[in-house]
């Protein structure tokens, strides 16, 4: 184990000389680079540097077409180079104003990215510069020896790969999710040298060909099993069939091996679950000559090897041999080491107790790092909050000042308890404590918010360390929290329009949009004006926002979205004492269109609720009568599917209430724009919703 490691901070050095085993080099967030080999199952250090700034990336380089055995690390705004023996030969201060987030090396060319800035250096001399419209997560360059020109590719948070030429954007390639990692197909860009594999934060994997003029998508694998986001990719022939497999590491600790068939999509052949997110993955020969391995480094710094070496050896009679001498000596040495460590812990604890009780005692808060991720899931319109700590978590307290639902997560083994809270005086809507089982370092929670209600979700994380200490992490729940950025929308839908005019700058209106909607870059976009498209993940309605200095135009097929925007934007403008001229154009057909989108979901949830209410009674009948052949087929099918129905109902506790709430809001908002208050008619509407068909509902809306 080393310190906490960042994404892509571990590599295998090429094998040298007659020895076929490879050395491992890893950089951690204490700034330490550790290089070691494995002999007889034990780690043998080669070199270790002194601590320094956090290492964000570690790459291997060297002259083109020679073994890539020079080690380069990015820490802060500096790039340092080391030989494979650990001697530093380069210290290059880039003068970037932000820390380096991503790095790629090809011969004498160095490609660096901070949050929004891309820089290309050749022999440490500045060559090209590009300012991206959204955050850059990774950078790659197509192999120069194959494509004969420098083609950098940036993976950007707004679901596009930006392909550059010099300092200019050549074109953008749309991908199905925010790309987090890029890798050359087969490790060399495939036969053409133009093929790139990408992984997204919502767990999708794809291959795209980056030609000189346009992108050609080759294949794409969705995330059917609802696994974590992809953090690292490598190509290596681990199955020994002469074809390189795709090795994938995810942020929920799942490691996958995909077999690449020549023309078809890759097929998942093996997977293995680790307990922490996998920050780096490499294929090679590390532990034993002749047996290939997959090496993974996890967030808290564990390096784990999976080998192809058969673990069980059998003698002729088919009985397994006793533990080998080597294994027995290893076990006894581990036992001795464990006893020694336990003694050391006891001594240190006593020492701490004595010093803390002395008159000159100084309290020190132990520092620990938390890796957190708060993202919207498109499939079930819920937010995932993932908290990962470098030591075991004791408990997590979740508090929210807006109404939200906590949903069930299958992978979560923590015990949850709710505390009653008073929402009136201090707007406290949720207090829940998750008590984790021993050795839990990663916790995943799911919450669903209500659009129009905005505020802050806070997580108080307490790990199992002495003295007890806690970190607070805050997450903004935005007014239109269930909206997600999309590449395009359907312009043929009936759209309502909200137009704002006033004495505001481009930066001011942009900051209001950032406040209202998720997935909008915080930095003000370049240029005079900007257009963003969004889709509501719960209902499938859409929003188009176009704005410039002094004017903003928002179009949506859902009148409630327009109503929320109108309220929040006028509130924000009032705070800054800016006078707004607001006009709106309401499309009569849009309410009917939105109801048609909601109604199938409403019907499905009502039917599910009715079935769930019948289960107990039907089960009682089954017990009394012995068999259920006399029941109608529809009731028999409810009994057969009872477990799945209960499971689905449990996963979405307040789904029906949410839909009722949306229909009520739609009803109120429709008449609000006409200047009529219909709140007195809401009880009538709710009464009607129970057994109402789509036409009846539309008729009620039109007759009111």
TrEMBL record:
Coiled-coil stretches noted in the UniProt entry, renumbered to this chain: 324-351
Top-rank taxon: Eukaryota
Pfam family, one: BBS7_GAE
Keywords carried by this UniProt record: Coiled coil
One Gene Ontology cellular component annotation held by this UniProt entry: membrane
PANTHER family listed in its UniProt record: BARDET-BIEDL SYNDROME 7 PROTEIN
Name of the protein described by the UniProt record: Bardet-Biedl syndrome 7 protein
Organism: Nipponia nippon (Crested ibis)
Source species taxonomy: Eukaryota, Metazoa, Chordata, Craniata, Vertebrata
């Amino acid at each position: 184990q080393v310190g906490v490691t960042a994404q892509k901070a571990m590599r295998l050095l090429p094998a040298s000389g007659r020895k076929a085993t490879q050395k491992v080099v890893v950089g951690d967030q204490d700034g330490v680079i550790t290089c070691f080999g494995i002999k007889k199952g034990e780690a043998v250090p080669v070199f270790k540097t002194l601590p320094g700034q956090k290492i964000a990336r570690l790459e291997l380089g060297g002259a083109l077409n020679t073994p890539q055995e020079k080690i380069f690390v990015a820490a802060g705004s500096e790039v340092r180079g080391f030989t494979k023996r650990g001697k530093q030969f380069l210290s290059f201060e880039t003068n970037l104003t932000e820390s380096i987030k991503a790095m790629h090396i090809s011969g004498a060319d160095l490609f660096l990215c901070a949050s929004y800035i891309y820089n290309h250096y050749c022999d440490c001399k500045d060559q090209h510069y590009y300012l991206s419209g959204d955050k850059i997560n990774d950078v790659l360059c197509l192999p120069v020896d194959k494509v004969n020109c420098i083609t950098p590719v940036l993976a950007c948070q707004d679901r596009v790969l930006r392909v550059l030429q010099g300092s200019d954007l050549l074109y953008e390639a749309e991908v199905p999710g925010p790309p987090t990692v890029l890798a050359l197909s087969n490790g060399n860009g495939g036969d053409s040298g133009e093929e790139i594999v990408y992984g997204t934060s919502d767990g999708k994997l794809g291959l795209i060909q980056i030609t000189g003029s346009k992108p050609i998508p080759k294949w794409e694998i969705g995330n059917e099993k609802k696994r974590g986001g992809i953090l690292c990719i490598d190509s290596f022939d681990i199955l020994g069939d002469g074809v390189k497999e795709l090795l994938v590491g995810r942020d929920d600790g799942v490691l996958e091996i995909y077999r690449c068939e020549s023309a078809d999509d890759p097929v998942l052949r093996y997977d293995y679950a680790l307990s922490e997110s996998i920050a780096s993955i490499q294929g090679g020969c590390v532990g034993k000559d002749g047996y290939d391995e997959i090496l993974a480094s996890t967030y808290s710094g564990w390096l784990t090897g999976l080998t192809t070496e058969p673990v069980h050896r059998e003698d002729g009679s088919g009985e397994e041999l006793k533990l080998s001498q080597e294994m027995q000596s290893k076990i006894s040495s581990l036992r001795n080491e464990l006893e020694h460590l336990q003694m050391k812990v006891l001594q240190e604890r006593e020492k701490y107790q004595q010093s803390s009780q002395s008159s000159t005692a100084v309290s020190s808060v132990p520092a620990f790092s938390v890796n957190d991720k708060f993202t919207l899931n498109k499939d079930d319109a819920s937010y995932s909050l993932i908290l990962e700590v470098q030591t075991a978590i004791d408990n997590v307290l979740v508090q929210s000042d807006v109404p939200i639902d906590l949903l069930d997560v299958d992978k979560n083994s923590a015990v949850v308890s709710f505390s009653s809270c008073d929402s009136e005086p201090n707007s406290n809507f949720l207090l829940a404590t998750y008590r984790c089982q021993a050795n839990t370092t990663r916790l995943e929670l799911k919450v669903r918010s209500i659009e129009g209600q905005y505020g802050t979700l806070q997580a108080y994380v307490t790990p199992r360390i002495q003295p007890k200490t806690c970190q607070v992490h805050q997450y903004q729940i935005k007014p239109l929290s269930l909206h997600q950025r999309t590449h395009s929308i359907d312009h043929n839908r009936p759209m309502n329009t909200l137009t704002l005019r006033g004495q505001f700058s481009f930066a001011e209106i942009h900051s209001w949009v950032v406040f209202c909607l998720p997935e909008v870059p915080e930095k003000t976009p370049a240029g005079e004006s900007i257009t963003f498209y969004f889709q509501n993940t719960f209902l499938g309605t859409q929003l188009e926002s176009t704005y410039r200095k002094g004017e903003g135009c928002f179009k949506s097929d859902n009148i409630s979205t327009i109503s929320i925007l109108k309220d929040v934007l006028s509130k924000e403008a009032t705070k800054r004492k800016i006078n707004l001229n607001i006009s709106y154009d309401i499309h009569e057909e849009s309410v009917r269109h939105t109801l048609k989108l909601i109604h199938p979901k409403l019907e499905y949830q009502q039917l599910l609720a009715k079935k769930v209410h019948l289960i107990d009674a039907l089960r009682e009948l089954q017990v009394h009568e012995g068999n259920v052949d006399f029941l109608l087929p529809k009731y028999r099918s409810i009994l057969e599917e009872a477990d799945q129905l209960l499971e689905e109902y449990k996963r979405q506790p307040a789904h029906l209430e949410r839909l009722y709430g949306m229909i009520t809001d739609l009803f109120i908002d429709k008449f609000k724009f006409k200047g009529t208050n219909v709140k007195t008619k809401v009880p009538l509407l709710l009464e009607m919703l129970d057994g109402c068909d789509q036409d009846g509902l539309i008729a009620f809306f039109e007759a009111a």
